[in-house]
Each structure stands twice: as structure tokens, then as C-alpha cells.
Design brief:
The complex is a heterodimer of chains A (142) and B (242). In chain A, 46% of the residues lie in helices and 13% in strands. By secondary structure, chain A is of the alpha/beta class. Chain A has 2 domains: 31 residues; 103 residues, Oxidized Rhodanese, domain 1 (3-Layer(aba) Sandwich), CATH 3.40.250.10. In chain A, strand 2, helix 3 and strand 3 form a beta-alpha-beta unit. Chain A starts with a helix and ends with a helix. A 5-stranded mixed beta sheet of chain B has the order 2-9-8-4-6. Chain B starts with a helix and ends in a 23-residue tail after the last strand. In chain B, a hairpin with an 8-residue loop joins strand 16 and strand 17. Helices cover 8% and strands 48% of the residues of chain B. Chain B has 2 domains: 103 residues, Immunoglobulin-like, CATH 2.60.40.10; 94 residues, Immunoglobulin-like (Sandwich). The chains are: A alpha/beta (142), B mainly beta (242). Chains A and B meet through helix 4 and helix 5 of A and strand 8, strand 9, strand 11 and strand 17 of B.
Chain lengths: 142, 242
């Protein structure tokens, strides 16, 4: 009787694990291998827009994508040409200004990397990553 | 009844026997490019150890900085090949991780979607921190410091600092260890918003030495209209040479 209960319990656990395994396999290439960005370092499109002139928008995408289209007033700052672009970005910054960094979409890491370098190397505070990136900004624009 | 059992057994046997399988030598490759390298290249080698051909449906890199090259579209049983992932380093430094998602027509989902990972540790010639120094308008013009640290493989022995403004004085002093320096910067006047670019230049390589730009500025007072402070270009190239 006891054995049967254990066996049924194990069977239920195995059944419960099946969807998780399936999801793991299906979304295998979408798993982020980096730790998630803390919520305090993220900002939504609406929040960032509400900051108005108090925020500088930074486009972390490659040059070609920035040239095609970007958030109005955004400054290009990517890691391909960091050493050249950083000195061009810094004069736009002043203490108290918030910095909103974005890349293509939720899954891209460029915005997070640029934001980290701005905090570490330029020692800027109030640097945020735009949730959903450029794709989300486009959606909200409509 | 016997026939159906036989058919079922045969079907199962055929399904198992007629399998496609790409075996990857490594799913994760660690690369250590040398100082000054422009790219880091990973070769992900595979072999079809199954009995049916495998077709590549897509090979996609996680970022625009990585390009991929697949030698073939179909891999026949027993055939070997590789996917070459070229990571363009640009001005990136430190630990970098890029992925390549490979999708094949393998009926086994765990084999059909493979993620290949390229990890690169990129050395930084000179670490200059912070990249911006500022004083608020009206603030006492006290000196502020920038630290410069050369990587252990960097052969440069000295650095120099050039400013394009007479309002900022700078002085280089050796730091606590070898390959370390401190730059002390002091504005003469903090009454008006203004900016300058300091160019920190090493003595290596002799032709086209490495240089980094540091922005120094007197910012608008808090609450003042947010106008960018004009900073003249530090060099004809617009800042940094490589």
C-alpha cells in the first residue's frame, strides 16, 4: 500500500516536470545565460518619456541601425566604437541627468553592457536600461 | 495480431535506426585574443554520427558583432564540418559572451536546436577611470584625480596628457605599482560652464600610440537650463586614435 502511494507520488512529480522539460527544450536558444538586469536598473518607455529633457537617450545598437532610425535626440554609443563615441556623448551629460540606454529588443545585451561601462568607466549614476528596447519604443510610438 | 506486433516492432526499429545526429566537439569555446587583435574566431566542429542527412535551417548569432559561416547546408552521414563564428571585438574589453543558435531538421528537438557559446576575454591596454571629471559652476576649483592602469601585457612605459584648454591644468604622477599612474586635474576657473578633452596617450606603439580621451567640464549649475557644454575636439580624428 505504502509502495503504491510512493510510486503514484513519483509518477505525479514526473508528470508535473514534463511541461518544464518541454519548455526548456523549446526555448533552448532563448535562454539568457547572463544574470537578469536588476529591476532598479530598468526603466519602461513611459517612465523614460516622462523624464523629458531630464534624460539623455543612448542608442547602443550598431552604427548602421542607428543611422537607419533612432529615438529622436538619441546619441549613438556602442561598443564597436566606444573610444570614439564616448567623448562625443559626455558633453551632453550633466549631473542629475538620467541616462536611458537601449538596444534592439529585450533579448539583446548591448544596452546592458553599455550601461555597465557608463557606470564603471565614466562613473555616471542614474543609468538605466530601456525595457524592451527599440522594439518596445516603436510599439509605444504607434 | 502477430503481423501488427511485427509491424510495430519494425516501425520502432526503423525510427530508431534512421536517425540524424550532429555531434559537436565543443558547444562552448573560450578564446583569449591578444592585445590589439581585431577579431576572435571560434571553430565549432561537428560530425553527423547518424544514418540520415542533416540540413541546417538557420545559423544565427546573438549580436551584430558576430558573424557566422557555415560550410555546408547538408551534412551527410559520417561527414564532418564546422561553423566559424567571428566576433568583431571593436572597443569591447573584459569578459564577453556571444551565442550562435543553430537550427537543423533533426527530428529530436534537443538536437535540432543547439546553442553554441563563444566566450572571449579581451585585454584592455589602458584602463582610464573615470572617463569624465566635472565641477559644478561656482564650485571650489579643487584638483580631482584620474587613475590610469596598464594591462600586464602592455609594453608601454609612460603616459602623457594633453589638453585643448588653458583652463585645465593636469599633472601625471606614478601610481603605487608599475604601469599605474595618477593624473591630477585642476580647473583655473569654475565660474562659467565650459569643457575640455584631455588626451591620455601612451608611448606604445611608437607609430600611432594608444590614446584615450577624458572629458573634463564645468557643468551648468543645478536647475539651470540643460544645455550641453561645448567641448572642443581633442584631436583631428575627434578624440581617440588606435
Amino acid at each position: 500500500m505504502k509502495f503504491r502511494a510512493v510510486r503514484e507520488g513519483l509518477l505525479l512529480v514526473a508528470l508535473a516536470c514534463l511541461p518544464a522539460v518541454g519548455e526548456g527544450v523549446y526555448f533552448r536558444d532563448k535562454i539568457s545565460w547572463q544574470s537578469p538586469i536588476p529591476a532598479s536598473e530598468l526603466v519602461t518607455v513611459d517612465q523614460a518619456r516622462s523624464w523629458g529633457d531630464g534624460a539623455i537617450w543612448v542608442d547602443a545598437r550598431p552604427d548602421e541601425e542607428f543611422a537607419r532610425e533612432h529615438v529622436p535626440g538619441a546619441v549613438s554609443l556602442n561598443e564597436d566604437h566606444w573610444n570614439e563615441l564616448l567623448p562625443q556623448f559626455l558633453p551632453n551629460w550633466s549631473p542629475g541627468k538620467k541616462v536611458v540606454v537601449y538596444c534592439s529588443a529585450e533579448s539583446c545585451n548591448a544596452a546592458r553592457d553599455v550601461a555597465k561601462r557608463l557606470r564603471d568607466e565614466a562613473q555616471l549614476t542614474d543609468v538605466f536600461v530601456l525595457q524592451g528596447g527599440w522594439e518596445e519604443w516603436l510599439k509605444k510610438k504607434k | 495480431m502477430k503481423t501488427s506486433i511485427l509491424t510495430l516492432t519494425l516501425s520502432i526499429f526503423l525510427c530508431v535506426a534512421a536517425r540524424a545526429e550532429l555531434k559537436w566537439e565543443q558547444n562552448v569555446i573560450d578564446l583569449h585574443p591578444a592585445l590589439g587583435d581585431k577579431t576572435a574566431v571560434a571553430h565549432f566542429k561537428y560530425q553527423n554520427t547518424g544514418t540520415t542527412p542533416v540540413h541546417f535551417k538557420s545559423v544565427r548569432a546573438s549580436c551584430g558583432c558576430t558573424t557566422t559561416q557555415s560550410q555546408k547546408e547538408v551534412v551527410n552521414p559520417g561527414e564532418k564540418g564546422e561553423i566559424v563564428a567571428t566576433f568583431n571585438i571593436g572597443d569591447r574589453t573584459g569578459q564577453q559572451m556571444k551565442t550562435v543558435s543553430v537550427q537543423t531538421d533533426d527530428p529530436n528537438p534537443s538536437q535540432a536546436n543547439i546553442v553554441l557559446t563563444l566566450k572571449a576575454t579581451i585585454p584592455q591596454a589602458l584602463e582610464v577611470k573615470p572617463a569624465v571629471l566635472y565641477w559644478q559652476s561656482g564650485e571650489e576649483p579643487k584638483p580631482k584625480k584620474i587613475s590610469v592602469k596598464a594591462s600586464k601585457d602592455f609594453p608601454g612605459k609612460n603616459i602623457t596628457v594633453k589638453s585643448n584648454s588653458l583652463n585645465f591644468e593636469s599633472k601625471v604622477e606614478p601610481g603605487s605599482g608599475s604601469g599605474e599612474w595618477t593624473i591630477e586635474v585642476m580647473p583655473k576657473d569654475t565660474t562659467h560652464p565650459m569643457g575640455s578633452a584631455l588626451v591620455v596617450q601612451s608611448d606604445y606603439p611608437k607609430e600611432g600610440p594608444k590614446s584615450f580621451s577624458v572629458t573634463v567640464q564645468i557643468t551648468n549649475p543645478p536647475g539651470a537650463p540643460a544645455a550641453p557644454v561645448a567641448i572642443p575636439s581633442a584631436s583631428p580624428a575627434g578624440g581617440v586614435k588606435h
